[in-house]
Amino acid sequence: MSTAHGARARARIEVTAAIKDEARRQLAAEGAARLSLRAVARELGMVSSALYRYFPSRDDLLTALIIDAYDSLGESAEAAHEAAAGSGPLQRWIAVCEAVRRWALGHPHEYALIYGSPVPGYTAPDTTVPAAARVGLLFIGIVRDAYRGLGLARPSLPADLRPEAERMAADLAPDLPPEVVTVLVAAWAQLYGLVGFELFGQFNRVVEDREAFFRHAAGQLAHGVGLVYPQKR
Fold first, then answer.
1. Which end of the chain is more exposed for a tag (fewer CB within 10 A), N or C?
2. Span 38-71, pLDDT tens digits
3. Do you know which InterPro entries this protein is assigned to (predicted)?
């Protein structure tokens, strides 16, 4: 790589980072629905046509911010899971749940971007899926390890739900029983509901010791998917 080419590449990386940083400031101040490429360009002292060379549309910029947010959340959850690698499935599950909560409390506007109200007129492309799946794949891995090792307390499954449960299992974790995958998907949704209630104020004047409450709730979610073994593997 020539020196000039390398300098251009570094400059592009720096400008891209500056654009994203300014966009995140706008998210915090105005919300995702009001994100504007022209406003970002103005704050950075750029002409709009120059910014379009980095992000051709608002949706392209939103997609980049969404992928960054999912990746940041995924990295935090994966680090917590790695730190708990010597523990049993239940402890690892709770460690990942607590990492999700900590990240959300530290990045409320980015959490709102990926798990809050949809942005009008925006549809996330498939390129967001790998980053979005990182936390879910951790939970699937924890449950899979328990299923192959200590075992799971198998939940019941209504007969009318079995076809949908089998479809979800085929898509998400073919090696796990459909009834387990069903409650795993429900627990994943409930986790983000718990975090969202805390982050967006629904627990005000309801839950005071939120850390203890969350840890208990995360444990209940784990029990719901059959992780009832606190001992080490």
1. N
2. 999 999 998 888 899 999 999 999 999 999 999 9
3. Homeodomain-like_sf, HTH-type_TetR-like_transc_reg, HTH_TetR, MT1864/Rv1816-like_C, Tet_transcr_reg_TetR-rel_C_sf
